[in-house]
Design goal:
The structure is a single chain. Helices cover about 40% and strands about 25% of the residues. The chain has three domains: about 100 residues, Efflux pump adaptor protein, beta barrel domain (Elongation Factor Tu (Ef-tu), domain 3); about 70 residues, RNA polymerase II/Efflux pump adaptor protein, barrel-sandwich hybrid domain (OB fold (Dihydrolipoamide Acetyltransferase, E2P), Beta Barrel), CATH 2.40.50.100; about 120 residues. It is built from five helices and 17 strands. A six-stranded antiparallel barrel has the order 1-12-16-14-13-17. The chain is rod-shaped and about 185 Å long. The chain starts with a helix and ends with a strand. A hairpin with a 5-residue loop joins strand 13 and strand 14. It is α+β, with helices and mostly antiparallel strands and about 350 residues long.
Length: about 350
């Protein structure tokens, strides 16, 4: 029994020594996944940068609709190259299209009425007016003959015709004469055609309806969004069935309004927008001597940059990680560089954060 206990104690002691030895061994540290960015210039200035499209002015093109509606169809996808005028998406335009058709019909009706006024007098209407003159003249002749007979009989023998009959014949003659004058004036009015003021009024109504139709058609075209210039679709913040307005589309993740589409230049042409702290602005070299190098975060890639321009407006810094909301109490000067040549070793995307060193 004692030998067994002694043996077990010895085994435990040896095991403890082995565990202590193994625990005391130090594992060699793993090499870093990438080297931290280093300043390649003796007096270089560090700045945070963000990749953006190569644009003459500004950064990317944010596309907003000018009208509100539900997205009916999307014709492009993210990463697709588009030409100026390419149809990007279409909103539901059923109501506006019906309005355009209604105004077109009203304009056509007004145009037809204007043509009718200008075409007066109508041949058939003028013939009716002429026939009415002939009928009135015939009635006048009948009344005139009847009056002369009554008058002659009364003068020969006053007892053969009563005085009332003669007066009635005279009144009938006057009425027939007035009807002749009325028929002739009506014929002249018909022959003169439409009144010039009626034509002018109808012309103005037609022009007003035509302009309303053009305005409605122009508004109808706003339901189709087209590319304002050549470029690449960087982001689409909606889907079919989404409701959009002039403020953009609601983004579920940021819980804010975002442009319906974002267009930029080709990925082969990217700029770097870096923000230099106002304390370091005085150390910036002159543009002719300015050099810069970009380090891509998470890699050992270092890319030379070419100076493009400076936006000479020092403004409050916007956190690049959340450009829409966060601001810090630091003022910065935007300096824009262009990537010199092509870098096949790095996968670069607009919106990517980089480290930039600026020197002489």
């Amino acid at each position: 029994m004692r030998k067994l206990l002694f043996t077990l104690s010895l085994i435990g002691l040896i095991a403890g020594c082995v565990v202590a030895y193994v625990s005391g061994l130090t594992q060699p540290s793993l090499p870093p996944a990438f080297s931290p960015p280093t300043n390649p210039y003796p007096k270089g200035i560090y700045a945070n940068g963000i990749l953006e499209s190569d644009q003459p002015t500004g950064s990317n093109i944010n596309v907003y609709p000018e009208v509100s509606g539900t997205v009916k169809q999307i014709f492009v996808s993210e990463g697709q190259e588009v030409k100026k005028g390419t149809l990007l998406l279409v909103l539901d335009d059923s109501i506006q299209r019906a309005t355009v058709e209604q105004l077109e019909s009203q304009a056509q009706a007004a145009s037809t009425l204007l043509d009718e006024l200008k075409a007066q007098p109508r041949k058939e209407t003028l013939e009716v007016a002429e026939a009415q003159v002939v009928a009135a003249e015939a009635a006048y002749k009948t009344a005139h003959d009847s009056f002369e007979k009554q008058q002659a009989a009364y003068e020969l023998n006053p007892k053969s015709v009563s005085k009332d009959a003669v007066d009635s014949a005279r009144d009938a003659l006057g009425t027939a004469k007035a009807n002749v004058e009325l028929a002739r004036k009506q014929r002249d009015l018909t022959k003169a055609g439409a009144w010039v003021y009626d034509i002018r009024n109808q012309e103005k109504q037609y022009n007003a309806l035509q302009k309303s139709c053009l305005s409605a058609s122009a508004l109808l075209s706003k339901y189709s969004l087209r590319a304002p210039k050549d470029g690449m679709v960087l982001a689409i913040h909606l889907t079919v069935g989404s409701f959009v307005s002039a403020q953009g589309a609601y983004d579920t993740y940021t819980q804010g309004m975002a442009p319906v589409l974002v267009l930029g230049s080709s990925r082969a042409r990217l700029n770097v927008r870096c923000y230099v702290d106002e304390i370091l602005v005085s150390r910036l070299p002159v543009p002719s001597k300015m050099k810069a190098q970009m380090s891509v975060r998470g890699s050992n890639v270092k890319i030379p940059l070419e100076y493009v321009s400076v936006q000479p407006f020092v403004s409050p810094k916007i956190e690049l990680s959340d450009q829409h909301q966060e601001r810090v109490d630091v003022r910065v000067l935007p300096v824009i560089f262009r990537i010199a040549g092509k870098s096949s070793d790095a996968k670069l995307y607009p919106g990517q954060l980089v480290d930039v060193y600026i020197g002489e």
